[in-house]
Amino acid sequence: MFKKKLIYPIMSFAMIVVIWELVVLFGPWSRQVFPGPTEVLKSFYELALSGALLSHSVASLYRVTIGFYLGALLGIPLGILLGRIQAIKFLVNPLIQFLRPISPLAWIPLSMLWFGIGDQPAIFLIFLSSFFPIVVATAIAVESINPIYFQVALNFNLSRFEMITKVVVPAIVPEVVTALRLTIAIAWLVVVAAEMIAVQSGLGYLILDSRNALRMDYVMVAMIIIGVIGLLLDVIMYKLGRLEPIASAAR
Amino acid sequence: MGHIRIEKLSKSYVNKRRLRRDTSDPDKQGAIVSVFDDINLEFEDGEMVCILGPSGCGKSTLLRIMAGFDHATSGRILIDGEETFKTSPDHVFVFQQNGLLPWMTVWQNVELGLRHIVDEVEKADTIQEYIDMVELTGFEHYYPSQLSGGMQRRAELGRALAVNPDVLYMDEPFTGLDYLTHLKIREEVINMHSFIGKTMVMVTHFIDDALIMADRIIVMNDRPAKVIMERKLDFSRPRNIEKEPGLRDLRDEVFMRLGVSYVA
């Protein structure tokens, strides 16, 4: 069973590599513009050995981690307030719904002006891209809590604080973990774009810099690494979600 | 103590759903719907009361008002002479289904009402005592989703009894149980009632349950609901409707009152 699970993905990746090589061989592009798997593998070794790959990956992950944590740290409590208190919902929700559809990338000019060059503008963009989905998902999760649980809490004289810690937070864990999983994927998408401006490091910068040097093999290496890290992030978030199996099973 | 007195209790609400067709009066917000009107009842301390009636007759609303989850439009409810408005651990509600918090174990659920006990040993002993009482010994650290429907209901009963309430409200407590489990849990509730002697008010639409369990039955009719029948039952226990002519006659009468006339 386990072997089967592993064999199929390996087969599909092997197939892609073969098709890739065939396209390079018979396609209209030169190997400069469309490098094949062997060139990319060689470049991968180059980049990995020089340490560039690691430092760029760490730089990107650092920005995503900080921005994502900030988004979750502020977004989850605000979402709980939005879901619990009508007045706050009426006050804040329209604003959130208005800001939410604005792509984080549209904030690039302003964030550069506000935060200058360096990590901050990129972190700010990541924060924006995670904050809104987390707020909205948390608020929806809170609103959909079975009202019986609140009545039970009332019946046993739970304080407002206990209502949050003993009822609201455990009740929304499954939905919030799912939201975090989706959000970190968005954050990972945005960081690459954010790094094409204002910074001198990160996988996005690696792509831009390699393009300027006409090293399409490096561009492809960076793309592959972005895909692999994105996959790993998703797996990690999925495993985190599985830590709370009872709560989700009860739904 | 658990003497309950309901005085002139009425509940109505404004129907906010405006009818599209009703264009004659644009300011008309909607009709006032009366759920029940002028209910007067008195239950003695330690009584098992069953409120019977068709679905949607407002019997659950009545129970929810008594428990403090809802408010009456007029009238009042006195428990031991004191007017009640709010929820309180003195009168605990047992829900139709899923009243246990699913992210807490049986132990943690029972602990919910005992948070005020400072002495950890005393608290643990009390929790264990009630878990044993509802025969869930060994399942303390199970989550509700790992228990059968009957065990969940017993756990909720244990949680409710652990706070030592004066009154226990039960809203269709056998909903969703299979027939045999229904009968078993019913028997356990009867035993528990005779053992602890608390006032219990139960809403049900199963006439047999009411006849077998109750010291007093209240029959309500459709909206706006009124009490159409109130009877004190002093048949000996355990009761068997088939073998007790008095209960059979009573059942026929309840059926008649509720408009099921095949027995006439």
Q: How does this model look, in words?
A:
Helix content of chain A is 82%, strand content 0%. With 251 residues, chain A is mostly helical. Chain A has one domain: MetI-like (MetI-like fold). Chain A starts with a helix and ends with a helix. The model of chain A is unreliable at 246-251 (pLDDT under 50). Chain B has a domain at 94-164. Chain B has 7 helices and 10 strands. Chain B has helices spanning 59-67, 106-111, 120-133, 149-162, 179-196, 207-213, 245-257; strands at residues 4-14, 32-43, 48-52, 74-79, 82-83, 91-94, 167-171, 199-204, 216-220, 227-232. In chain B, strand 9 and strand 10 form a beta hairpin. The model of chain B has no long low-confidence stretch (mean pLDDT 86). Chain A binds chain B through residues 146, 148-149, 151-152, 154-158, 162, 166-167, 170-171, 173, 246-247, 249-251, and chain B through 67-69, 87-89, 92-93, 95, 98-99, 101-104, 112-113, 115, 143-145, 163.
Characteristic key phrases:
heterodimer, A: 251 residues, mainly alpha, MetI-like fold, 0% strand, B: 264 residues, alpha/beta, 6-stranded mixed β-sheet
Helices, strands, pairings?
The complex is a heterodimer of chains A (251) and B (264).
Chain A: H1 2-26, H2 37-50, H3 52-84, H4 86-99, H5 108-115, H6 119-143, H7 147-155, H8 160-194, H9 203-212, H10 216-242, H11 245-249
Helix pairs in contact in A: 2-10, 3-4, 3-6, 3-8, 3-9, 5-6, 6-8, 8-10, 9-10
Chain B: E1 4-14, E2 32-43, E3 48-52, H1 59-67, E4 74-79, E5 82-83, E6 91-94, H2 106-111, H3 120-133, H4 149-162, E7 167-171, H5 179-196, E8 199-204, H6 207-213, E9 216-220, E10 227-232, H7 245-257
Parallel strand pairs in B: 3-8, 3-9, 6-7, 7-8
Antiparallel strand pairs in B: 1-2, 1-4, 4-5, 9-10
Helix pairs in contact in B: 3-4
